[in-house]
């Protein structure tokens, strides 16, 4: 209905209008005007304007209206449902989409109809886009409607009565037409003087190249004598000028009832999709050819071998009349042309194109007759180019002659000289000539062919086989000469209807080929001799009755006398009888025990006696039809008929037989050989030699026809294919150990002790060793200690993937899952069985205490490392035995793969444990410390120590002059809260501590570093009584001797820092703890209160739980290090005893990766995720992180594999922890782009998390981002974070600026914070710590002077003065110390006053 509404708002997408009832509606932008492509709302649409609209529809409580005048003022009936649609109804609609085959029209309330192209009312050759546009209002007439299926067909033509002429052309008839006009896509013609028709560009010619040439030459008035009516579109005819369709018009079906399975019919491609091709016949009859039935060989895209409009021959596979579906095949093997129609049509159209091109008044009309094929013409040399000699003709200046260099026949020509040549081809105004004596001599002096040749041509019969010589190779055909018939000139096609875009067969100039006569000049419309290559012609109906009688005299087993006419690398070509040909395979010349080359005594022209052993199969690939297979083996020549044919049936070869074969083809990795006429063999590159130099020159060592002697290592009787190994001393039958042959069918020819050739497939990371390919599907493993002879620091130096190597098989075994494991060695001395090779201890029994050994570090942890002495023996080195000096960070000092030398401390063959020491001194560290015990320590003692390790929960401190380690919890570090422990302490710092608690049973010492433990008040410091009330720091080295060993004093280690975690080990310290704890601390700091000493019960329970987890993890690691599983079975036992331990599962995965079994490692990860209890969230998370690292290292593609695991982990674990774990992996592996993308997602999802924003700022600083970028991130974070987290965030950001960025930015940030909160001593303390770390004395003292001038409570001022005094004692002199004390005294005096 039509309503009046007021415009409320105007948006880029349309206008919101409101009716008088208050209901709102939308007027879309396209409906705001009649114009096309509206970019912005018209000026009429202003807020408050009242306009007249028509309601288009209502859907989902949304009302849509239109302001198009044609619709608003329409008086026609409204169509608002499919039920209201009646045939003949005329109504208004608007176009929504324009396609090549028609338009889609929309009506009211979502009703949509379709207008076919024939109902658009267009003139022939006019495209719909040029007349109509999307959004246009049109008047439509309902043609048909199916309400149940919501299908509606309409027409733009208002009259249903059409004028039908009595003689209107029907589909499938042949008509003539005159060109009226040309459009870019069609040629519009007038048919019979009153009908109009259109010829699409692709329907002008069968050959897609000729269609474009003809279109460029057509002009209005040109007459087509024959056109085929393909279809009708209203009064317009769809026509085709294709020679193939016109000639077979009577056979092309127009209805599905005319289709018969097995028939081959002509058609054209009307559409190509990924699944196949649609082939159109007459009318709308269409068939479909699936992709696998379109071509003979697999292809990626059908559009590469077919094009829309291409003429094709289609083989009908299946006809389903009920569903009106026709299944076709376009394979060339089933649809090849049996005649010459394609090339005949090509030459006929070529003549028409030439006539149109040279039809001007200045062009003589007799030039075609003058330059007839096979005639002698005389011309003058105009130029000599790279591609040939250019000739000019005096009487025909528009014609150009060309003599290609290979057609000179040895003649020497010069520019300006006159030559006479034979016309061999005439195409597109270019005359190809030949000066070959045999061609020129075939014509008499008067320019006519000799009489004997004419008589010979008359003897030619259709389908007769002849030998021809390639003279010229064109794009679409080949020019041939037939020597047997006085060098008659013929033409052979290079393509067919279905193969126009397929790769064509390659011919060389001068090549001899066998062809079949397809058409002789007297019967061919183009007047040419058409020859068909033997591969494309049907080899039936050979019509020489005389030859057929003579050929029937020979059969398999007959003895013949033949003459050698050609010797090729693998066969000898012979002729015998009357024009009969045969071949002798290279294996059919000598007996198997002969060592000389089979063809060494044969010569061309030699006559030999041979026996026919088989009738050769026709080969379409080679283009030959060698009728008979012959043999000249002495044994066959003497044998009877039955004996000579009995050996053809079976394959008698078996494994380990020694045979001789001949090279047929050499690929990149395989040599293909022939053993007999029907048995082939192949030799893999790594089976051809054991010497790397020979393997590198694999393809150069073999040539076609070369004899190769080898041992059979595989037999495929179905394919009649053998696999060989090059014959050498190791291939002798007596050296084969039968007990080794049952290991695997793949590796049955590989046994322990063999020296074989290999190729490095992969260099495993770390000390994983090498993966060596030793067969097509067989790989071996080279241990890290078996790469070189000597103990060198870098055994992988000079090794690269793809390198050929010579290796020795050390062991062949079957794994539990059925796969075969082959252990190899590359040590050259071991290959020669040399006894002077550098020792490798293969058994623990060979080791005794004191033995000097060398090895490579396999892995390192805070408690020591493991080294590899050989592929069978590993040893452990505990931390105390790594060096005579103190080792602060084993991961830093002993990298994986490092070569070390030491001596054996103990070797236990039963348990397989070996202990090694790298210390040079004879006494162990534990022996020196036997006199140290916890009894020497007392609660309250003040001791000096050195920070051993810094963790998030506290410091591990080594007590001076001992190896006892104590823990100072983070709450005991200072009287004020410590925001960043890493900013205050680092490993190696000397500290003074007070012993708070000693637990001798658990071997633990608790320490405190608070200043209040050492000084009772500030005045004590001023009076110099700093040590009163406490104990003097003691030197434990002077304590009396007590019992107890070194191992009893070790404190359990905390989690390793992330930088030192190997790929599969998991460090979750980076996301332990929650933002809630940080929020609580920030809240306490914001209120100016210190942390409460007595924490809540919940916090205590959480702390105890985490501490217990650390203890359990350390105990599991210690137990695992004591008894390391060596086999999958041992790991299976371990995971059954500890099913919820992620530590054990991850060690199992790492063990499998050391074996290069990635898939098994993945399956173990999946098992772990299914097995671990759902309540053990942290354990599951550890496995997920290990899974991340596994896919990051071995996934393919890596990025997608990690993302899949990441998405799965999000469903089971805390999303924030999972995101942080993935981020840690990206940062560790330097995948910065992926880390950036992940940060973008994290800051959107966890925008209230202070930790996430701080990690992003830290990452940006380490990447060197500019200051403006950092500021933008900080501003975004402040907008997202809640108020109670902002102070903590700004403080930590300033600390990061000091550490990773520009210190000046950090100062500015601290100054801004302190401007708002000048009495926050904790922030002042952190600010001072950062400046002290940088070491600028002037800035530090100025900052101290500022803070000590503040008006703060005495307790806070005391803390600041003590901090100032400590700094001056460390960096200043006596004068500065007095200055600080003086300022403190002044503050005390002010407070007392």
From TrEMBL:
InterPro entries: HAT (IPR003107), HAT_Syf1_CNRKL1_C (IPR055430), NA-bd_OB-fold (IPR012340), OB_Rrp5 (IPR057300), Rrp5 (IPR045209), Rrp5_S1 (IPR057302), S1_domain (IPR003029), TPR-like_helical_dom_sf (IPR011990). SMART domains: HAT (SM00386), S1 (SM00316). One of its GO terms (biological process) is rRNA processing. It comes from the Eukaryota. Residues 1-68, 88-157, 172-242, 262-331, 374-436, 557-633, 656-727, 753-827, 850-919, 940-1010 form the S1 motif domain. One of its GO terms (molecular function) is RNA binding. It is found in: Nucleus, Nucleolus. Its main location: nucleus. Residues 1075-1099 are annotated as: Disordered. GO terms for cellular component: small-subunit processome. The keyword Phosphoprotein applies. Pfam families: HAT_Syf1_CNRKL1_C, OB_RRP5, S1, S1_RRP5. Keywords: Nucleus, Phosphoprotein, Repeat, rRNA processing. This is S1 motif domain-containing protein.
